[in-house]
Amino acid sequence: MSDGATPSKPNRRHDLPRGEAVYRALRRAIIEQALRPGDKLPEDVIGERFGVSRTIVRGVLGRLHAEGLVELKLNRGATVARPSLEEACDIFEVRRSLERDVVRRLVGRVTPRQIALLEAHVAREGEARARGAAESIRLAGEFHILLAELSGNAVIARYINELVSRCSLILALYGRPHSPDCAVNEHLEIVAALRSGDAGKAIAVMEHHLDAVTERALLASARTPQRDIRAILDAYAP
Amino acid sequence: MSDGATPSKPNRRHDLPRGEAVYRALRRAIIEQALRPGDKLPEDVIGERFGVSRTIVRGVLGRLHAEGLVELKLNRGATVARPSLEEACDIFEVRRSLERDVVRRLVGRVTPRQIALLEAHVAREGEARARGAAESIRLAGEFHILLAELSGNAVIARYINELVSRCSLILALYGRPHSPDCAVNEHLEIVAALRSGDAGKAIAVMEHHLDAVTERALLASARTPQRDIRAILDAYAP
DNA sequence: AAGGCAGTAATTGTATACAATTATAGATCA
DNA sequence: TGATCTATAATTGTATACAATTACTGCCTT
After folding, report:
1. Angle, to 10 degrees, between the axis of helix A20-31 and the axis of helix A133-150?
2. Strand B70-73 versus strand A77-80 pairing type
3. Which end of chain B has fewer CB atoms surrounding its CB within 10 Å, N or C?
């Protein structure tokens, strides 16, 4: 494989801890559902593809495991995580709590500059809708992450980031295929409510939105509870 | 150093992924404040002490970093984390949200078996109070962790675990030295309120307790805002 | 032909070796 | 004396080598 992976700059002082690029790439691939829940993540393959050693890959997989995006089984390697339906419910429940706090913190304190940021993001969501589902899914999630970051509480931001990312997995497992979990207009409503300064309304709008998101994400769960063969055969056997 | 570290069983199939013991030991040492915020954590020293290679230690430190207990600086190694005052406030704010949810979930649904578990734990807290501060601090935190686990939401449990652990760091930095952050009788009140089945009261008791915890943890923050030399010299310079 | 079993290949877990960076100590010079 | 620079030591970042476990293929047995 020689040097195909790092051609441009032979040995420029790497500003980032070597594995950062691998981390971001894997994370994005998972969130955009290019890597689907259950997919195997062999250390050799990933390492060769990015031109790093297994040491680095292993660190990245551990980090993704800590964030709940990857499962690690002893001596059996890493796979993209497959959250159970129960975990999915837990995740949405915590999201509701924390995102309520986000709105509560932002309302009345949000600056015009921040509103502009949010509106710009929603605009990008609108543009991306034509370009494909993968990017839409990612941007929809990033709206909630941006909101959490603007709230000014770093702990909430980190947790929301984790939870929203894992919602991509849930959507891939239990939702309608290739549909983003958030509607652009619902995001616009949230921004509008924040700007209005009406705390009660803003919270209500956010909760309504999260109800809708939950609904969409768990929609197909009645049809395909798991990727379970027995459940599928039930429809064909007498 | 030969074989002093792993004497009893030469090569028995290690049930646990090699680093688990190191992780637990370091975690406990940090939580019990044997390792204090800012203390250096050299890979060599830790590895030799536990009879594992730096590879393992590095993985453990990364994991502790993901949990917010350890800081990693590029090329400068790991230190026990020193949460800023702002981070401390963020942490307590999220704790309030999540622990309110815990109580809300438990109240009315808690079984006698679970009540017994909680009471047994509080009893151990009482016994430990005589034995020393370190164990008391840990047990006080573990009461909240147990509560979160009993709530049945695994995500909440994981986050509470993280947040409560980090509170040990906050207490070490800004609180009165060597004092546990929770009073045993306050924990008893929480259990009593849960058993009563009165949701409003249970939530109120928990919030009151968390207020008190926050108060105690951030008490000394006026006296020693940081381990900052300038602030100390202010009292002596004209 | 189906199932089980051995031997081999592939993959992961851990340790060590090497490279790069940072910290330390000693020497030099003003 | 004090500061700066340099050489050396200590520590971290990364890659590779080896050991252990798991997966697979083909053969053998019934």
Report:
1. 110
2. unpaired
3. C
**Tokens at residue B86, please?**
């702002």
* Residue-wise pLDDT tens digits, A172-190: 999 887 677 778 999 999 9
A202 or B238: whose pLDDT is higher? A202
Answer with the residue of higher pLDDT: B23 or B177: B23
Q: Which residue is nearest to the C1' sugar atom of D13, using CA? A: B75
CB B46 within 8 A of CB B22: yes
Which amino acid residue lies closest to nucleotide C16, measuring CA to C1'? B53
**In whole angstroms, what is the distance from residue A33 CA to residue A176 CA?**
13
The helix (H) or strand (E) run that includes residue A134 is helix A133-150
Low-confidence ranges of chain A (pLDDT < 70): 1-16, 178, 220-238
User: Which residues in chain B (121-160) have CB-CB distances under 8 A to chain A?
Assistant: 153-156, 159
Instruction: Report all structural domains of chain B as residue ranges with CATH numbers, in order of start.
Output: 20-80 (1.10.10.10), 85-222 (1.20.120.530)
Count the neighbouring beta carbons within 10 Å of the beta carbon of residue B206: 25
